[in-house]
What does this fold into?
Amino acid sequence: MRRWMILALPALLALVMLPGCQSWGPTWSELTGARYNVTIPNRRPAIIDRVDDRGAFPSPNLIRVEPGERRLVVQGPAPGWAGGPPLQVMMLDVAPCKRYYINAQFDNTITQQWHPVVDFVESIAGCLVPESAKAGAK
It folds into this structure.
């Protein structure tokens, strides 16, 4: 009896936690702070702190979002500066089935002045663009 309970516990926990998980349909978009282009001077990876009213992401390196206008709060990590540089707010019109690489572009290597930039946008394999979005793009 006890062995059965030990084996059933993970399945029971998964069942209980499943309704709290967000499900994604055939169309989604992704945001990442990872650096795509490493040849641009004074560009660093960024930390995406908030998307709209959401934060504390399970995987901060790849955040799934619904397409549309999004408000991002971004951190620009700068080693050696107490407290780090200031947070920046960025508005981004997210297209369906695209992955956005958000980075921090510093003015130079000395100051803490920076602004968020979209370093690169790529298509997501296996994501289905809805017909209404295809018709609007023509």
Observations:
- Residues 12-23 have pLDDT under 50 and may be disordered.
